Amino acid sequence: MNSRLEQSLQKRHKKRIRLLIGCVVAFGIMLTSLTVAHAQLDIQAIISNWFDNKKIASMNAVENAIADEQAKQVERLKDELQLTISKTEEAMNHFVEQEKQERMKAIQDYADQLIAKLYDEKDEQIVKDKEYMMQAFQRIMEEAIEEMELISIPPNSINGQEPKEEVDKSEESELEDLK
Q: Which of 121, 122, 148, 138 is nearest to 174 (CA)?
């Protein structure tokens, strides 16, 4: 019986060993498949994180490049604006000076014409009033020159609007009285 018993025990032992080996193999297969699934999840997470980091880095690089270029262009615009303002100011000053000279010349020519008329007239009253008129003309001319010296560029002329000219009625009436 020993032999049967031994055979039976050996069969059981073999079955247990096979069962144990089968369990170990099944457990190994399950662990291997879990590791592969876990590795795939890790690879996806790594790739996703890498793309997110690259996206953020590239967005920051673009924003920095835009900010740098914007700063350069703002400086360039400031320089050009300053140059344009200085050229415009120079042109306005030249224009104002030219206008002052032309108007002073016109006033002097008119005064010369009036003086010439005085010499042409033979009337004694006009000759007596000659000095009075000369003084009046001289005074008018000096006042006009002083007003022209005080001319400044009004702020609205820079915007393209012409300044309104105001006519002094008292000066016109004095000129008419002298005629």
A: 138
Q: How far apart are CA 103 and CA 151, in angstroms?
A: 12
**Structure tokens belonging to residue 165:** 């000219």
Give me the average pLDDT of each 10-residue run along the chain (179 residues): 75 84 85 62 78 90 94 94 94 91 89 75 62 82 83 55 48 54
**Cβ atoms of residues 141 and 108 within 8 Å:** yes
> Is the Cβ–Cβ distance between 144 and 104 less than 8 Å?
yes
- Is residue 123 within 8 A of residue 129, CB to CB? The reply is no
* Residue whose structure tokens are 């080996």: 21
73/37 Cα distance (integer angstroms): 54
Helix axes 2-120, 130-149, angle to 10 degrees: 170
Query: Under 8 Å CB-to-CB from 88, ≥6 apart: which residues?
Result: 158
108: burial class by Cβ within 10 Å (0-12, 13-18, 19+)? middle
For the four alpha carbons of 67, 69, 73 and 76, in that order, the dihedral sign comes to positive
Regarding pTM above 0.85, the answer is: no
